[in-house]
Amino acid sequence: MSLDMKVDGKSKNRADDLAQGILGTPMDRPEGLLKVTGEALYAAEDLPGNCTFGMLVSAPAQGDVTLSNEAEIRDMPGVLAVIHDPRMVRNAAQGTMDEAPVQGVDHAAYAGQAVALVVAESFEAARHAAQSVKLGLSGEEGPIDPQAVETEESEGNRFVRGDLDKAMASAAHTVDAVYTTPSMTSAPMEPHAAVAWWDGDKVTVRASLQMLKYNRNELADCLGIDSENVRLLSPYVGGGFGSKLGISPEAVAAAIAARELGRPVRVVLHRRQMFEVVTRRSETRQHIRLAADGDGRLTGLGHEVLVSNLPDEPFSEPVTQGTHFAYPAENRLIRKEVARIHRPAAGSVRAPGEAVGVTTFEAAMDELACAAGMDPVELRLRNIPEKDPEQGIPFSSHMLEPTLREGAERFGWFDRDPELRARREGEWWIGTGMAAAFRVNILSEAQARVRLTAGGAVVETDQTDIGTGTYAILTQIAGELLGLPADKVETRLGDTDLPPGSGSGGSWGAASTGSAVWLAAMELRQRIADAMGCDEAELTLKDGQATCGNVTQPLEEILGGESLVGHGHVKPGDALEEVMQSTYGAHFAEVAVNDVTGETRVRRMLGCFAAGRILNEKTARSQCHGGMIWGIGMALTEGVTHDRRTGRMVNRDLAEYHVPVNADVPPLEVHFVEERDPWAGPMQAKGIGELGICGAGAAVLNAIHHACGVRIRDLPATPDKVLAGLLQ
Amino acid sequence: MTLTLTVNGTERQLELDPRVTLLDALRVHLDLTGSKKGCDHGQCGACTVLVNGRRINSCLSLAVMHDGDEITTVEGLANGKPGELQQAFVEHDGFQCGYCTPGQLCSATGMLQELAEGWPSHVSETLEGEYGLTEAEISERMSGNICRCSCYPGINAAIRQAGERA
């Protein structure tokens, strides 16, 4: 049996009437103790017996590859194999690709591409041998500068209406600015890793991946075998942020090598390889134009962007995704160009599109507020669309105004002196800035199974928990519907032998796989109600007791020693076309900018967010903290430098690519504005994992401008750039 | 090479390739995978363990340099049951993916000891004296441990709670 649902319209609010009372609570993560005691096992742990160790070899430049000293390498102590196989992949697959990415390692399409695998009896022997490989690289090199090649337009992103030039010419206030953002990287703490072993024609891979149902098909396609013969295990994933969406080179290489050797093979990416062989966030060049009337109402907006990727990659950074619906303006010009260049592949990094697109657009909105002499919060309030400005459909809900108002109130926004350079403390200029946050909401197909026995419930799906809180929220959803406390629910994840969930990405894991668990548990409620002879809506389940009318019975008694299995299957439906679904928020930041050094310190930051029902207040808050801190990194320190001769990433490690550390982060406040979005499925919950990064960096950049009058349009706002502005 | 490590109170004899780091000795040769490898270059802090009571990056140190040393890993922080600091990390959500967490916990344990012994930090106003568990001191002293999930608010709240109760 299965309870299936295609989300075509509004769902009833059932969750608020359920009795257990654990959904939405700040419950501790059920796997928390395993993580703080070191017992949670990640991909490269729990090694099978007789395991061998592989190390990938990276090409330092583009070109046709020859392994000049392969025989010598094979003769090195402990070395078992040098693998250089046409099934190996150029770079990680794009999210939800469901098939092999570009294969073949005879040619390095970018500097840093992995072109061979050395396998040895020990990690040390493999590393030494991999470092000893001499590569010959010859032939032509492709272009690496996105500004220096002919570009192709991405038609799907184009929207043109009215006459923007005319609107600009007749506007009371305008902004015409070019923003640039550098390549950025996900840098999850756990390096990409795979341990592969074969049993006959079947391969099992412990891997660090986000979307197992797609990854299984991708790996099978790479190997040329049936998906049924691939099993992936990712019970714990040490962060992903988009970089583990698709099957990546180490997993494919490990599977090929394990077949060849007839022994298990472990391959872990070196931290420097992680920067290159899994996808980066594309650098962007963004031309933003805003035209407003005397009241600050937008009459025209333009967002024309340039991004890059390798040839044959289907993804291009959807920079303008938020621009299409964020603000109304009659005259609109939104376009995207893609430069095909030979830097490492670009792909999804936390909030692809809005992370960089909303950030720059919100900085430009701050420029407009300054040009119009208007408070930046007020400017946003005057530009809230009544319906989707391009599609003309209604919003499922629109929470920008309440998040702006509550955030401004809590931050003490209106206490600020709007004048620039108005506050000084010693060497430091002090200022505040704000930005709005937008992130599209996506539902994705998902399945889950819930087994109910006298001992409690077991939730099963191949969904992953990449730190997002999946173990917690699925436990809460099942417990809420079945009337069980959290310790009576066990959630099993990350195994392709279990029903296929949605995968973790695009902020859709919680609402999608959560809905599948909801449906599976709802099927069980219906069967319990049938057994008691009442309607499911009349059934109360709490603490293992079932109540219908005047009758209360222990669940154990109803089950009578049997187990009940429910299966849930959710699919996106017409709701996608009927309404525009998004999450909303507002960021506020206070910074200090050093007048002597140009250094920026964030002194405090507050985010106010709305994303439908919040399923776990604690894990949702941590997701928002994470997003806001990524915003601090984007604004102040993060950026890949590509060697202008080879395109190679120069700062490809954590010493040189500066993610925020503890001392970079001030006290943060996160507030949720209560909301139920009936269009978002049976739980009325939307995704929260990416909203926090969207616009966060703009609040910091705008605060820098308010503090010291320096407008940084080339991210990040490193001290050299700020100082140059201070000296002007 | 032959060496003896006392790991979490138990003496362990090892025969190792001299290239094996202390981290890989723990993870691969002793199957104590609680200590994590994040960068293998001393840049992220995920591999932090206590050696003779002091926190170090175990990826930057060869195992053979530690013959006779006492090592405490995350597995050794729980004495039968999770300690105050470990429970505080769960309560305050001082982690998400959990991969940097063993390093954060070992680092915090070492840091609290350094504070108690009166070691100054970059943000201390004087070089001698007692240093409290201020936000600035915790943040500064924990900045060798990167958390890309960015759970610093929870990490600091957990350390403060455990430190104040100690």
What is the end-to-end distance of chain B?
Answer: 40 Å
Identify the CATH homologous superfamily of the largest domain in chain B: [2Fe-2S]-binding domain
Biggest sheet of chain A: strands, sense, closure? 7 strands, mixed
Q: Give the C-level CATH assignment of the largest domain in chain A.
A: Alpha Beta
Number of E strands of chain B: 5
SS content category of chain B: alpha+beta
Q: What's the quaternary structure here?
A: heterodimer
List low-pLDDT spans of chain B. Answer: none
Count of DSSP strands of chain A: 29
CATH topology of the largest domain in chain A: Aldehyde Oxidoreductase, domain 4
Question: Going across the major beta sheet of chain A, what is the strand order?
Answer: 4-6-2-14-11-12-13
As a percent range, the share of helical residues of chain B equals 25-40%
Describe this structure in a few short sentences.
The complex is a heterodimer of chains A (728) and B (166). Chain A is an alpha+beta fold. Chain A has 18 helices and 29 strands.
Describe this structure in words.
The complex is a heterodimer of chains A (728) and B (166). Chain A is 26% helix and 25% strand. With 728 residues, chain A is of the alpha+beta class. The longest helix of chain A has 24 residues, at 509-532. The relative contact order of chain A is 0.15. In chain B, strands 2-1-5-3-4 form a five-stranded mixed sheet, with helices on both faces. With 166 residues, chain B is an alpha+beta fold. Chain B folds into two domains: 2-77, Ubiquitin-like (UB roll) (Roll); 84-165, [2Fe-2S]-binding domain (DNA polymerase, domain 1, Orthogonal Bundle), CATH 1.10.150. Chains A and B meet through helix 1, helix 3 and helix 16 of A and helix 1, helix 2, helix 3, helix 4 and helix 5 of B.
